[in-house]
Amino acid sequence: MPFPRPRRPLGPAPGAAARHWYEGVLGWPTAPGAPLRLVTGVRFDVLDVPAEAGAVALRHLAPASPVALAGGRMRLLVAAGSAEELPGLLDWLEWGALALDLRALGAGGLTEAPAPPVRAVGAAVPGQGAGALQGAAVWLRPPEPGREVEASLPALPSFEGVTGAPDLVRLVDTVAAQCHRVRLRRGAGPRSRGRDQPLAFS
Predict the structure, then answer these.
(1) How would you classify residue 56: left for phi > 0, otherwise alpha for psi between -120 and 50, otherwise beta?
(2) How far is CA 174 from the centre of its chain?
(3) In whole angstroms, what is the distance from residue 196 CA to residue 82 CA?
(4) What's the confidence (pLDDT) of residue 63?
(5) How far does Cα 168 stand from its chain's mean position?
(6) What is the domain count for the chain?
(7) 50: preceding bond cis by omega (within 30 degrees)
(8) Which of 54, 86, 170, 197 is the most buried (most CB within 10 A)?
(9) 126: which residues sit within 8 A by CB, 6+ positions away?
């Protein structure tokens, strides 16, 4: 299924400028050293899924929910603490017994920092074109400076009622179903692949 084209920067941003954008502009903690990595479990957790599965789940995200792409993987930012809830949530949704190509990064984790949009850090580094970025993480939906990211992230429903945030349960159910479909499709031969029927899920 097609998904939005990544918003690739014109070239890699200088490390110091990229770090300043994440820490100084967005207020997201980063890990020391290179390559630049974001600390998970503080402002957000990350669901790391096959890009094909993640593309179907985009409809369950708010327009401002940040999403990154790295190679054939999609990284969906979700509310901090979601990684801890994921195993129990998968069990409750009856996906826990299956081997799904789905992982979550939470407290104490690190994820590669996508290059910020060039407009956010200035001109691209001369002499380094888009070819240098192949396989590197890029933003499909970059975070918006000045907007608190937490309000846009999928979260578990609050006991107090509707929070306005996207529903983490619906997102996980969709992603799990799509991961299962991707697994079946990759394991099927050419003949059976043509006879695959879509799995039903809500």
Answers:
(1) alpha
(2) 14
(3) 32
(4) 87
(5) 13
(6) 1
(7) no
(8) 54
(9) 11
